[in-house]
């Protein structure tokens, strides 16, 4: 591969724009990205304002011309919906183009047809972005985890419904109220059915089950219930009994075969999926001998989903290069060895526990001393007394390690401080 | 690749034995595993009892002969420690063998030397098992996530210390007590220093930082503090202030460069890492544009670690095959389309909320009816009363969906039941 790989992007909406954004700013990312070039972009209307700019002639409404263009190596389908997405993907394949898509609706229904066509044409079809947004789950399932016998996949894979259920739980409100709120916030569509009736999750679990168990799962056979029937009362009762209610997508190997389903589920509070809140997604995979592994992160959003799209592009670039030499994904570090930033320059928060004789002025003295060294305190609490001693716990805001250490060193010399001990100094996760 | 790939296994301890276990039972795992064959196994003593059996001549104490054997394609180093592991790896590479290793101590110190040698020899060195046990983290960092600008990696990557801190928090006991307990349970070594002083975590974060930021990190520059100084009192104060104490390994991009460190850290309770308990590991990666993703699972143990070792073997097999055709990791499902198991045959637990007129015999009637249909109840609670009505919440043990539905259908016809409504029927995550 001497020249850059030329890609044709179908769709410049939420995900398409973010995908272009990554490819157009390759600095500090994987070096292979510099070898991928956006040659054509297909959209519905040319005269829309766009957040990214392209050279003249790149933007077009003729998507057929893109998927048949002999100059292109890869087609990235990000228009969504069933048609023309399916036909464009198939036509791209028949024109020897590799395909990357985030379209779970098309893959869950026509995946078999598409993969068969791709195998015949000898091209790749990569779909990391179709499930779990930015979370790497498709590739781990196909690669790292596939040496296991997979027993089950349990996923919170629809952010909208998880947002709604989380809100219902924290606010005690009913489904319809929270749905309206989610629609106003842009977390739910005007027609919410695909999300709240579980169809989107069904698409996604069909794809995951097909990969994990190596047999093509039929979407129509997936049993699917949404969250409309879940009431605030049920969430409260579940809570009292020790459960959270989550919309789970489940694929399980049973003695008699495979079972795949989507339904609201009471999850014990100590289960790893019980703590997954808001629009986040999580996928828990159980297998032998690995046990349980979980993948957690943003299940949607332009940037996160684009991260998955571009990782697929990069993998195609890597696979096309692999015959030349050692796989470029496994290269040794590109940058020379540099000094690390020393710990004194660390900016973090601190927790310190201080014990000294309890007398007036102690807190004031400490406060002044920290202030002098630019250590801003979040809290200073005198928590405990033992035979004339005071125990004081201090938590700081972000501060430079060096400054904090200087303040600590000065404390024993303060007027009001006697018989001091500082048994604990710990760091606190820093503020953003 | 017409023949199977021949591997030489160095070490048949916890991880080596589990690795052999996976390779010797390839059914229901990835089909590529059938093309990997254990040709030689190197150990220290021949006359130990082993959990796996090999043909005569496979087991040997001559490890030099293995790494120089012209018939072998891949060497898997699972003996641990610095020497002879490092020399054996380098010799294997110089004899054109691909290498898979779980040895974080060797890679964190000699990774640069080893990768350089591998690049010259044109062989792969894969290290998925060296960090996070079975959790796929090395490959996602090199591939899916590497299109992002990585800002930070925060990891709980030492199971022993996380087990100790979790126990200290739940039992209020002090470090030394819990350490003794952990040693008795086999979760901590007789010489616990590598774990409790943070050195093992420092090895691992050195490896992760090197991959994520593309520059070779020097282990000696990693600032490292262990958990010996953390007391039960600090854990309690932290708790009151809204924090958990965790041993975090942190690699962060700062304006002035990279900072890499290991130290006990107060983590806000609502942070995703705060809930990671016991021997589990979790790695939180933050980047642009992806945001936060987290990988969670068993950070050690023979089976889990072997899953990562074998996934590396499979990836080498796939990369060696890739020039022939389309990457075999991306193949279409191997099994024909089959019927899914219908939802009536699902075995799960149920939650049902029942409202009816409050009169004697209601609970008894319900109990008898469920029993008749083989529905065993975990709890049946009459929670609420409204103007003459009773609200009853039922949670079952595992039951066949069909049986539960039949019981529900019969309830309205029971003697004591009048004006019944069943506003909610939800599934509960099933018992093991
Ligand atoms: N948004 C997310 O968070 C997310 C997450 C995971 C997966 N996905 C998937 O990613 C895909 C794209 O989603 P999105 O949110 O980016 O969609 P979007 O914002 O609605 O953008 C769709 C883009 O496709 C173009 N388009 C649509 N139909 C077209 C047609 N018939 N001919 C030409 N162009 C057409 C539109 O052109 P105009 O700009 O001219 O209107 C627009 O640029 C979908 O498959 C979705 O399921 C999205
Ligand atoms: N155990 C885990 O959970 C875990 C998790 C992640 C990574 N790892 C890494 O995996 C590697 C192996 O760990 P392990 O727990 O499996 O170790 P282990 O149980 O102690 O087994 C070590 C094996 O190597 C053999 N061996 C050691 N030194 C040797 C020498 N000089 N010559 C020949 N054979 C030698 C031993 O032979 P004999 O059987 O004859 O004594 C034994 O079979 C280490 O790098 C470790 O850090 C382990």
TrEMBL record, chains A, B:
Pathway noted in the entry: Amino-acid biosynthesis; L-threonine biosynthesis; L-threonine from L-aspartate: step 3/5; Amino-acid biosynthesis; L-methionine biosynthesis via de novo pathway; L-homoserine from L-aspartate: step 3/3
EC identifiers of the protein: 1.1.1.3
Positions bound to NADP(+): 10-17
Entry binding sites for NADPH: 104
Active site: 204 (proton donor)
Binding site for L-homoserine: 189
Recorded family membership: Belongs to the homoserine dehydrogenase family.
Protein name per its UniProtKB record: Homoserine dehydrogenase
Organism annotation: Dactylococcopsis salina (strain PCC 8305) (Myxobactron salinum)
């Amino acid at each position: 591969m001497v020249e850059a790989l030329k890609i044709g992007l179908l769709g410049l909406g939420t995900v398409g724009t973010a995908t272009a954004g990554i490819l157009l700013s390759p600095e500090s990312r994987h070096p292979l990205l510099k070898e991928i070039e956006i040659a054509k972009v297909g959209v519905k209307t040319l005269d829309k304002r766009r957040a990214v700019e392209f050279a003249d002639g790149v933007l077009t409404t003729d998507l057929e011309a893109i998927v048949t263009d002999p100059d292109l190596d890869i087609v990235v389908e990000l228009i969504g919906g069933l048609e023309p997405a399916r036909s464009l993907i198939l036509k791209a394949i028949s024109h020897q183009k590799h395909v990357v898509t985030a379209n779970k609706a098309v893959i869950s229904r026509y995946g078999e047809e598409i993969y068969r066509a791709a195998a015949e044409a000898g091209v790749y079809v990569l779909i990391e972005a179709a499930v779990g947004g930015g979370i790497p789950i498709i590739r781990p399932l196909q690669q790292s985890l596939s040496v296991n016998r997979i027993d089950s996949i349990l996923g919170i894979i629809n952010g909208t419904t998880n947002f709604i259920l989380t809100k219902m739980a924290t606010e005690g409100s009913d489904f319809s109220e929270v749905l309206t709120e989610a629609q106003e916030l842009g977390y739910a569509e005007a027609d919410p059915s695909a999300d709240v009736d579980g169809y989107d999750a069904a698409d996604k679990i069909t794809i995951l089950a097909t990969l994990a168990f190596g047999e093509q799962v039929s979407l129509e056979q997936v049993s699917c219930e949404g969250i409309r029937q879940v009431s605030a009362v049920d969430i409260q009762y579940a809570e009292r009994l020790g459960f959270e209610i989550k919309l789970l997508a489940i694929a399980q190997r049973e003695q008699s075969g495979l079972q795949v389903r989507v339904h609201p589920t009471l999850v014990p509070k100590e289960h790893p999926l019980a703590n997954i809140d808001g629009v986040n997604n999580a996928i828990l995979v159980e297998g032998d001998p690995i046990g349980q592994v979980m993948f957690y992160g943003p299940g949607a959003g332009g940037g996160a989903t684009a991260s998955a799209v571009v990782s697929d592009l990069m993998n195609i670039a890597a696979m096309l290069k692999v015959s030349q030499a050692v796989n470029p994904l496994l290269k040794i570090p590109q940058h020379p060895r540099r000094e690390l930033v020393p710990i004194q320059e660390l900016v973090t928060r601190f927790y310190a526990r201080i014990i000294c004789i309890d007398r007036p002025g102690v807190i004031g003295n400490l406060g002044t001393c920290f202030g002098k060294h630019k250590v801003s305190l979040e809290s200073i609490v005198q928590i405990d007394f033992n035979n004339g001693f005071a125990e004081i716990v201090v938590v700081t805001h972000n501060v430079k390690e060096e400054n904090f250490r200087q303040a600590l060193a000065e404390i024993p010399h303060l007027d009001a401080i006697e018989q001091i001990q500082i048994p604990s100094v710990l760091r606190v996760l820093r503020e953003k």
